[in-house]
Amino acid sequence: MDSGFYIYQKVHTLAGVALHLADHLDIAARAYHEIFGDNGSCSGSFDEKNRPCFDEKTEKEIAARIAEVLRDARSPSRGSAVVTLRFAAQTSQIIPNQQIIPNRQATQTCTDALQPTRKIAVDVEFGRTLLDTGYAVSSLRPQAVTYEYSIPFPAAPTGFQLSAQVLFDTLALSHHGATRSIRREGDKLLMCGAAPLFGIRGNTLFTAPIADGVPDSVERRRTMEAASKVGLHTIERAILRYELTQFDELFFADAAGITSLASCDGARFMSLTVNRLITHNPNLP
Predict the structure, then answer these.
(1) What is the pLDDT of residues 31-54, one digit of tens each?
(2) Residue whose C-alpha is closest to residue 130's, from 14, 228, 26
(3) Degrees (nearest 5) of the Cα angle 52, 159, 90?
(4) Cβ 23 vs Cβ 43: under 8 Å
């Protein structure tokens, strides 16, 4: 797949099997619909709201392709790894049947009748082998700093997010000696790079709502479910920069598991509840 605009999903694989693949494909199809509308197809399949969706046959084909990529990368057969699925819109021109007229004089008419159609091309790319088997809490607790910036289609998991993460993580390291950047809008903390950001204060879990311009994700869904199981109350409200010192813990969830942040903009945090999230919910996210 050539470079350009794409929607992505980072998927955790365990023993060669992609976990929560159906959920990842559902999120990708919904994001595709939000951006391109109804003029598209995923193997010709649509749901009851005329949104493109991946049928069972296509899901099995993607799962087989993921297994093939893992074998080619010589990923440990019983371990965990992360792969990236990229979904790109391929646009072509079609002529409605009623407009096809077999004579040279009709050439201009047919050209004017060309209509664009889009089909999703799916590419699978090996990411990295994980040290832990299954989802885990990272042993590293990075420092983070916030940056205010905007990206196109902020509520969709696009390549723009990944590119911005690389840029601002680089700036965080070179300017502040931190290894993680957090995207904010004014005082609202939204994402840790391309991953959903969470904060814990007392027995309450905070995370920015999708309405604030953060993408839906498997990790976001599973973390909120896990929080409920360990007795945390969830409030979908962005953490504000000036209240960071009031929070006990700050962390993000990605395809590898959970990473607890040691600090953000100088405020320091503990790492207690995140271990309960993984211990009580080993399949998180």
Answers:
(1) 988 887 755 455 445 455 545 568
(2) 14
(3) 45
(4) no
Q: What share of the chain is helix, strand, coil (3-state, %, to 5)?
A: 30, 35, 35
Q: How far is it, in rounded angstroms, from Cα 76 to Cα 66?
A: 14
Whether the upstream peptide bond of residue 282 has omega within 30° of 0, thus cis, is no
The terminus-to-terminus CA distance of the chain in angstroms comes to 28
Q: Please name the helix (run of DSSP H) or strand (run of DSSP E) that holds residue 129, with its range, or none.
A: strand 115-129
Contacts of 163 (CB under 8 A, 6+ apart): none
Buried b (16+ CB within 10 A) or exposed e, 86-96: bbbbeeeeeee
pLDDT reported for residue 167: 97
Check if the beta carbon of residue 107 is closer than 8 Å to that of residue 27: no
Amino acid in position 109: T
Q: What is the pTM of this model?
A: 0.84
- List, for residues 48-98, the tens digit of each pLDDT value: 554 556 888 889 999 999 999 999 999 988 899 999 999 987 665 444 444
**Domains assigned to the chain:** 7-129 (3.30.470), 136-280 (3.20.10.10)
**Are 26 and 53 in contact, with CB atoms under 8 Å apart?**
yes
With beta carbons less than 8 A apart as the criterion, state whether 260 and 138 touch.
yes
Query: Phi/psi at 28 (nearest 5 deg)?
Result: -65, -45
Average pLDDT, the chain: 85
* Per-residue tokens: 273: 């509840």
Question: Which run of H or E residues covers position 149?
Answer: none
For residue 36, the model assigns a pLDDT of 78
Can you give the length of the chain in residues? 285
CA–CA gap between residue 150 and residue 153 (Å, rounded) = 9
Residues 139-175 have pLDDT tens digits of: 999 999 999 999 999 999 999 999 999 999 999 999 9
The CA distance from 39 to 113, in Å, is 16
